[in-house]
Structures are given as structure tokens and as C-alpha cells.
Amino acid sequence: MTVRHALLALLSEGPKYGLQLRQEFEARTGEVWPLNVGQVYTTLQRLERDGLIESDDAEDGPQRGFRITPEGEEELSEWLRTPPDLSSPPRDELVIKVLVALRVPGVDVHDLIQVHRRYLVQLMQQWTHLKQDAGEGDLGFALVVDAELFRIDSVVRWLDAAEGRLKRASTDIPGPASTNGSPGPLPRRGRRVGVRR
Fold first, then answer.
1. Per the confidence metrics, is the pTM higher than 0.70?
2. What is the spatial distance between Cα 97 and Cα 12, in angstroms, rounded to a whole number?
3. Are residues 71 and 124 in the same domain?
4. Cβ contacts of residue 61 below 8 Å, gap of 6+?
5. Residues 99, 145 within the same domain
6. How does pLDDT run across 114-155, given as a tens digit for each residue?
7. Sheet order of strands, 65-68 included
8. Total domain count, the chain
9. Which segments within 46-132 are labelled E, that is strand?
10. Residue span of the structural domain in which 105 resides
11. What phi, psi does 96 have (nearest 5°)?
12. Other CB atoms closer than 10 Å to residue 7's CB: what's the count?
């Protein structure tokens, strides 16, 4: 998440103080992502340096007001309309763990998958309980919880697919022969998914 653009969005509603921006950021995001006040002021300084916001002539401090400039409104509009770059997969720690575990002697990758699946299911239950306890009154929190539940569900589905693929590979494809009993190197692929424009 970009704090820079979130602050521009808040300032698009009208002038605000730094502490007010921090409180509103946390309230709008369902209080799931706490924001350090130092990070707010550092970001505000950069936005002002870049000409995207202006501040009151008052000295630095909690009562210093900030407002968005026309350049800031243009930057915010462009950010909101630009899809995130999803053309290459992120470095997902769980995916890396599974890939690395395939080559670590003595590690049962199926057990590893089960451990992570159990954890993710427990996490989904916790998020579901939080959502039920909060009710529908807090729209920001409800949207964050929905996004998190969908994200976790997709990871669980990937683990299921990975386990199925690994089981098929262990029965369908004999491992490469080697003199020390360890599997051969994994193939390298320089594949990058691209979107034609």
C-alpha cells in the first residue's frame, strides 16, 4: 500500500493536519494498518517537496495544515486509474518455502503443506470471527476482511493444487538419476507474463 497516495486521497477532501491524516488513514483502512506519525510527516515533507501538497506558513508541528495542489490531484487521479503491475509473480514466502523444501534432504513437502494449510484455515476462522464481531457498521474494516479472506482462500487453493501436482509428479515422473541420491537441478525458466497493449 502506498501511504503517499492514501494521504493525497485524504487531502483531496480538504485541508488537514498531520495527526488528523494519521487518524483518518487508520479509520478508513479499518484500523488494520497502523501508521507511524513519523512516517506521516516524512511522507508529507516529500509530497510538499514534489509540489503535490502545500502547507500553512505555521511552524512545523501538529497544527500545521496541508492541502493538495492541482499537481497532487493529477497524481492521485493517475494512481487511482493505473492498474498495479501484476505481470510478474511477487516473491511469496510460502511459494519459495515449498520450492526450496523440494530439495532439502529429510523434509517431507507434503507435511510442510499440511502445516501451512492448517495455519491458514485457522487464520481464516479468526478473520471471520472478527468480521462477525464488527458487524456491517464499519465498511472499511469489512472490505479489508473480505480482501484478506479471499487472499488466504487463494493461498489455500494454491496449496491444494501444489500438493496434487507434487503427488502426480512423484507417481508419473521418475526422479532424475544422480550418483549421490539427490535429485538433479530444477529447470530454469526465464518466463515473464506480459500483457499486450
1. no
2. 42
3. no
4. none
5. yes
6. 999 999 999 999 988 888 877 777 788 888 889 999 999 999
7. 16-17, 65-68, 53-55
8. 2
9. 53-55, 65-68
10. 93-172
11. -65, -40
12. 28
